[in-house]
Amino acid sequence: DPIQWFSTHDKSSSSLSFDVIIAEASQSLAIDSNYLTSLYSALSKDDGILTIRLGDSPLFNYPWQKYSPNLREYNMISLLEKHPDTAAMIAYEDTACGFEAFESFVLACRNIECRDSWYSE
C-alpha cells in the first residue's frame, strides 16, 4: 500500500530521498493532502518531481471536469494546485502507454524552473 508506506516511513532517513516519484491516482487509493505531503517529503529538497497517472483522458464531449466521470482526476489536480509544495504543474496526455485510450498525467514540481526544462525541447 503506497499511502501507508509513504505516510509511515521515516522521513528523517537520508536514504528516503527521491528525485522523481511516479504515482497513480487509482480509484482504490484515498489520496488526500496528507498523502501528497508525504510524497513531497520523500522528494529531494530542491527540485523533486511527482508524476501522477490520472487515468483515461476525458473525451471532448465530457462536461466541465467538476461534473464529469473524471471527478477523481479533477479532485487530484485541485489538491495539487492548492498544496503549498507545488511550485509548477504540467498536465499532459500520452497515447503510447500501451493502454486502450489516451492516458492523462500530471507533473508536479517543487521548483518552478522545471517548467523551463519541460518546454525547452
Tell me what you see in this structure.
The protein is of the alpha+beta class and 121 residues long. It is built from 4 helices and 4 strands; from the N terminus they run αβαβαββα. The protein has a 4-stranded mixed sheet with strand order 1-2-4-3, with helices on one face. A hairpin with an 8-residue loop joins β3 and β4. The longest helix has 12 residues. It is globular, with a radius of gyration of 15 Å. It starts with a helix and ends with a helix.
Our count of helices gives 4
Instruction: Give the overall silhouette.
Output: globular
| Topology pattern, helix = H, strand = E | HEHEHEEH
Major sheet summary line: 4 strands, mixed
Q: If you average the pLDDT, what whole number results?
A: 75
Summarize the SSE layout with pairings.
Layout: H1 2-8, E1 20-24, H2 33-42, E2 49-56, H3 71-82, E3 88-94, E4 103-109, H4 114-119
Parallel strand pairs: 1-2
Antiparallel strand pairs: 2-4, 3-4
Would you summarize the structure shown here?
The chain is an alpha+beta fold. The protein is built from 4 helices and 4 strands, in the order αβαβαββα.
For this entry, give a set of tags:
121 residues; alpha+beta; 4-stranded mixed β-sheet
